[in-house]
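Is this the right way to post structure tokens for a design question? Let me know if I should format differently. Anyway, here goes:
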């Protein structure tokens, strides 16, 4: 069995069908203290619960809302997306590795490898380092090739699809950019 860290429902769809096609057993693990604010966290949990029911995948849940922990861990580097995201990936993947070892999984992976918006190479690098350090295989696949398919399925299933990555910093970046764009449009 491979333990797959799951960032959200829509991002699980394509990797799940890929593993199913290959006949590889996967177990999901939801651990994302980076999702804020609270109502957004709840909505994303709900969307993944829908996928869990619809697809019959078993998920190990950590539904603790991690705002304070996450801000504490990233506070000093919150203005720098490179550093902030690196810490964010390490936090989530290290916890996934620990869970994988606890569950005696054969390997671990993450749905973060599906998103075209994530820092793919950095995620791969961090996962490989953790794999080496904790002596558990990292299952790598570039799931971005199925991005369109996964998104289409999410729309068909009427799943909630978020418009920003997760943390309050990314929410600000997303909407402040949108705001600037909107102001520019109005001033044309
Ligand atoms: S932008 Fe996304 S990956 Fe980066 S720190 Fe925020 S939640 Fe984590």
């Amino acid at each position: 069995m491979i333990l797959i860290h799951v960032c959200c429902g829509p991002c699980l769809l394509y990797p799940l069908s890929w593993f199913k096609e290959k006949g590889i057993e996967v177990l999901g693990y939801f651990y994302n203290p980076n999702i804020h604010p609270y109502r957004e966290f709840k909505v994303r949990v709900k969307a993944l619960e829908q996928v869990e029911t619809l697809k019959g995948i078993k998920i190990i849940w950590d539904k603790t809302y991690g705002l304070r922990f996450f801000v504490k861990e990233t506070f000093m580097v919150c203005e720098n997306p490179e550093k902030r995201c690196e810490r964010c990936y390490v936090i989530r993947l290290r916890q996934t590795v620990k869970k994988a070892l606890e569950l005696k999984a054969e390997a671990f992976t993450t749905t973060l490898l599906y998103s075209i918006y994530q820092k793919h190479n950095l995620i791969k690098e961090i996962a490989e380092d953790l794999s080496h350090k904790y002596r558990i295989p990292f299952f790598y696949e570039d799931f971005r090739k199925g991005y369109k398919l996964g998104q289409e399925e999410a729309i068909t299933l009427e799943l909630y699809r978020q418009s920003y990555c997760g943390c309050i910093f990314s929410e600000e970046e997303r909407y402040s950019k949108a705001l600037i764009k909107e102001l520019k449009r109005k001033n044309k």
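Format looks fine. Someone answered above. Worth noting: The CA atoms of residues 164 and 175 lie 9 Å apart. The chain is about 55% helix and 10% strand.
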